[in-house]
């Protein structure tokens, strides 16, 4: 891991979302130098599921050798940001570094994303980053160090990163656009950069998104803390960069990345927004049986249900059902085995209905009913209310249920999209072990 150099001793860092996760890890790294940390986060009382508060984080920071100022800050509220900045200036004499880490996430499609979640992501991610930067800039300009670091991705305009969670992508790219604009506007006065992980990082958010066992496929927050430390100790001339943690640390001479892994030697999940050029990516996807919708700039013709009273919908349903019933390929065989593995205990313990919208060679609608009496599985529309909808290629479906493709890996890489009850989706992942032992 990257050693501390003492360069941040006496510096004041204003870090949003620093009560846990990546923000706290960056704070603790700087605290080892003897830095002052303003913990600008919402959690003042213990959350019912998430660990840590601004006060427990303050205790850890001071134990690590730093000075802490815990402040209740919701970055959507301008007056709370202003108040925390005023407190920081009064206590520490100024602000040298701003880390815009606070962020909201909802990996849902356009029609499945409530307006209040859209507003949350836009106001916390884009507006919150812009506003906090604006309020801190007068003090950052006076600092000899003067850095802003946004935890946001390179702007990748591959449609792959928009189609499954458009609102989230726009909000994160808004943070990155702040880097583009502010780095030019304040060049020579304040360095403005972005930092993003090469692989998934194990945090409370990842725990909720990935389900049981996801931690083995992640790195610790330490890798982002080390990369952030490296950026923040560079001169102001290092600005306008979109830094990937692993690339930077390799340049700094780090060779052993197992030290950052939760489970050294275990395959790691790639993070969002990072891929090769679209043509090469399309070739890789096709080699794995997928049908990329962005190839040659043309969207694939995928049959979608428009609504219960749509004539075209009825035709589509009958067409898909007919194709599925007469299929004798790997998907149909997989569902036969799944159906044979369903029993009363599985139904009782799961209580969920799953619909699969498959594309590719065996395109069609399939279902697994693990809620109604006895359970069932097969082609066409499932009986009753659907709890989870999964979209993926037919070849990836077969790989997933045979144990050759991890569901979490499929989800993180964009091969699988999930709508509905995530807790029930995770339950199905656990059941796959029972199913794939028979496939």
From TrEMBL:
Annotated segments matching region Disordered: 290-316
CDD domains associated with the record: HSDL2_SDR_c
Family: Belongs to the short-chain dehydrogenases/reductases (SDR) family.
Gene3D superfamilies: NAD(P)-binding Rossmann-like Domain (3.40.50.720), SCP2 sterol-binding domain (3.30.1050.10)
UniProt feature, compositional bias: Basic and acidic residues: 295-315
Record's GO cellular component terms: mitochondrion; peroxisome
Location in the cell: Mitochondrion; Peroxisome
Domain SCP2 residue range list: 343-432
Organism of provenance: Anolis carolinensis (Green anole)
Alphabetic keyword roster: Mitochondrion, NADP, Oxidoreductase, Peroxisome
A Pfam family assignment: SCP2
Top-level taxon of origin: Eukaryota
Name by which UniProt lists this protein: Hydroxysteroid dehydrogenase-like protein 2
